[in-house]
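Appendix C reproduces, verbatim, an entry submitted by the partner laboratory led by Prof. M.T., so that reviewers can inspect both the input and the predicted structure.
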Amino acid sequence: MIATKDENKLILNPELLQLLNFYSQAKSILRPNYKIMSSIVFENLTKYFQSSLALDRLNLEVKSGEFITLLGPSGCGKTTTLRLLAGFITPDEGKIIVNDRVISAPKNSLPPEKRNMSMIFQSYAIWPHLTVFENVAFGLRLRKVGKKELSDRVSQALALVHLEKLAHRYPAELSGGQQQRVALARAVVIEPQILLLDEPLSNLDASLREAMRHEIMTLHQRLKLTTVYVTHDQREALALADRVIVMAGGKIQQVGTPEEIYEQPATEFVADFIGRCNRLSGKVVTRNSVEVNGILFQVANIPGNISIGDNVVVCFRPHAVIVNSANSLLDGERANHLRARVEYCEYLGEFREYELKLEKSNIRLLAIAPPNIRHQHNSVVNISISSSSCRILPGKFKNSLSANKLSAISS
């Protein structure tokens, strides 16, 4: 709910109050001083809420014009990081530096309205009593921008998000996707140095989320604003970001490009949280092989900190499991050739999903195949897995096959 009316009084939700504070003293920020390219440095950033540690010595550098996503489950510290950057809360330790200027530190934090950032909230936080035009113009009016310049800049911002024909409508007359576009236009019209987005698409249905994801990506490609985007949605993070920062327990688990995060997870948490993954407990036999319940898996690139005899986890994605009929010729280029039985098959339109049990073993794997690859329940199949698809992580995975089939184990 954006706001409620009590008799003749408009009662705003907390996000709108934060937005008002964000803009209320912005009159001192002048366009001639506007600098679009802004780098961000987080140094040992730490935040407690009472005795609970929400953020634990976070260190990160964001390049000028870069689009990063903070990705993780609820309570991982991603929104706390964003709120610290926006200036809504103050760090207990560490600091945030923007363009070589400290903007957040325990005893010296720049107020939100002095940071020249724009924030888009999960609930859009647009004013229900203002038209689309007036919502977008809100920040410019507080900056005392002249009438003609205001009109030109608002019109340009609305054209950027394809809302120029809806300028005189009220929020209640708009769809969820259109309301989100109003929030986007209002955020960019003031020409911020940094754009902050806090799960902006979570209230939209699947088709609108995809469309708005494209809008945000197109907007970033055109404006090249340094952008920090918070989400728990893995697809959003992979689709939008130049780099993904995976967080858990107030700490960064891994930083990398979407391809690096997906194909080369650094920890079991990342492997499990990003996409779906087969995970097998085993022991290193040679620098190129791991034994899993008597089955030898050929692998590549065992990390240098792992020795022969160590317990490890072999990780590979379901799409790396190639499923063929039992009488098919095996792919000589793929190192791991195994027989399995189809325990479960599900047709999902764009692909088929198979749960497989390896022959003479209790190991179960998840495989994804094109829809034209058909194997019946209980049929025997040949499978092959490239050694280069197998990622080796230290430790021993002890959980059982999850109900949503996101992982597979040896037992």
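The radius of gyration is 25 Å. Additional entries are available on request from the coordinating office.
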